[in-house]
Amino acid sequence: MPPRACQIPRDELIACLLRTDCVLKEGKTPAECLKTPRELPIQCQHLIARLSDCKKGMLDMRRRFKGNHLSEEAKARARARGLNMFIS
Q: Dihedral (C-alpha) 31, 10, 69, 49: value to the nearest 10 degrees?
């Protein structure tokens, strides 16, 4: 059975949230931590944006035919910022 759409970004976000101070030190659930995203580490914020973009891509008919991929320009910007882990 193939993985569900957006499953990889979702799993990465969950793993990131589980490593935050919000969960580890404050004892909140990941869902509670998502209510204040500005307090999360920048990596988790990027993963939130990635998951959101993936979900939007599922509804965008142009992306459904072409594929839910980053443009070359977006990939270059991500590499320049050192965000290689977000490029697949």
A: 20
